Write a sequence for this structure.
């Protein structure tokens, strides 16, 4: 019987890149949720050991905070593009709700909003990190409405934010894109009735 010795690839093994790993980790957090995802799940998926994980991110909450930054740049709903001052408020808010529906149900493996789901985490650090992004988005929506409808800004922004939170939760429970879009369009009709013509 002839055996051959397996040769190792030449050169150093590929080093772990914490920045490149964010996209993979983001999918894990989005798919399982913060509380259900363990450090073992993360290190297994990234192909690293726990000491490397802690050296790169400090903690699971530290990784999650980095992922929220990454999500804001790559996967979050583009508020600045949608909430433009050159468009009627009702039209912009309608697009926001439709885009939210598409984002929340676009991929069954990562349904819902990563930020909104994080605001319900049992970990106070993760919850606080998610709340920073959530509050910033709420304020952006409110500020957009307030420029033309200052007296109604709070109640209209609350309505939009509550609708988006409900759609995120519904997507996590398996509601289809068609049904979420129907909800978004009904909410958009209500907004059109509440916002004076511009």
């Amino acid at each position: 019987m002839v055996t051959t010795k397996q040769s190792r690839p030449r050169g150093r093994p590929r080093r772990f890149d914490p920045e490149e790993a964010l996209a993979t980790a983001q999918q894990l957090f989005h798919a399982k949720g913060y509380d259900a995802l363990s450090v073992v799940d993360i290190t297994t998926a990234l192909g690293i050991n726990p000491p490397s994980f802690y050296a790169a991110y400090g903690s699971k909450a530290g990784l999650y905070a980095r992922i929220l930054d990454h999500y804001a740049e790559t996967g979050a709903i583009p508020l600045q593009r949608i909430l433009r001052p050159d468009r009627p408020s009702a039209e912009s808010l309608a697009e926001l709700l439709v885009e939210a529906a598409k984002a929340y149900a676009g991929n069954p493996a990562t349904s819902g909003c990563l930020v909104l789901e994080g605001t319900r985490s049992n970990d106070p650090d993760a919850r606080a990190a998610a709340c920073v992004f959530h509050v910033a988005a709420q304020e952006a929506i409110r500020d957009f409405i307030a420029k033309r409808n200052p007296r109604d800004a709070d109640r209209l922004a609350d309505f939009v934010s509550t609708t988006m939170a409900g759609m995120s939760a519904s997507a996590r429970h398996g509601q289809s894109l068609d049904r979420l879009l129907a909800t978004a369009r009904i909410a958009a009709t209500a907004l059109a009735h509440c916002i004076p013509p511009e």
